[in-house]
Design brief:
The chain is of the alpha/beta class. The chain has helices spanning about 5-15, 40-50, 60-65, 95-100; strands at about 25-30, 50-55, 80, 85-90, 110, 130-135, 140-145.
Amino acid sequence: MNRRIFCLTTAAALVGLPLTSRAETLHATLYKNPDCSCCDGYAAYLRENGFAVDVKPTNDLAQISLNAGIPENLQGCHTMFIDGYVVDGHVPVKTIRKLLTERPAIAGITLPGMPTGSPGMVGQKRGPFTIYAVAKDGTAPTVFATE
């Protein structure tokens, strides 16, 4: 097969692939408390999984989360914005990719608190994580995924 035919065949095959199958860098902005080191660990985890992460220390994290639609009782320890969604807390990459692939009509997702063994946190995972979907209209959160 000559190079021209190979290139045309490869290009045609790539056009049919969904965006998530292509090697693309996902850009995210992560807001965190300036004194929190687990958030830096989470950013490193994201980078290891192909994300470009801009970390912004802030003392207004709770307000940023509220403004993004995350109820106070479901907030994590950092708030990230990616491709039109908010991702709050130590949400695993698999669930973020599910969000970005399915593109539901929600504000975003959250893993409340700082669960032991979650990405960026130390210790052994003690059970499944419940990740909640938060609506744009303020209706009650629902379970988006368990992991």
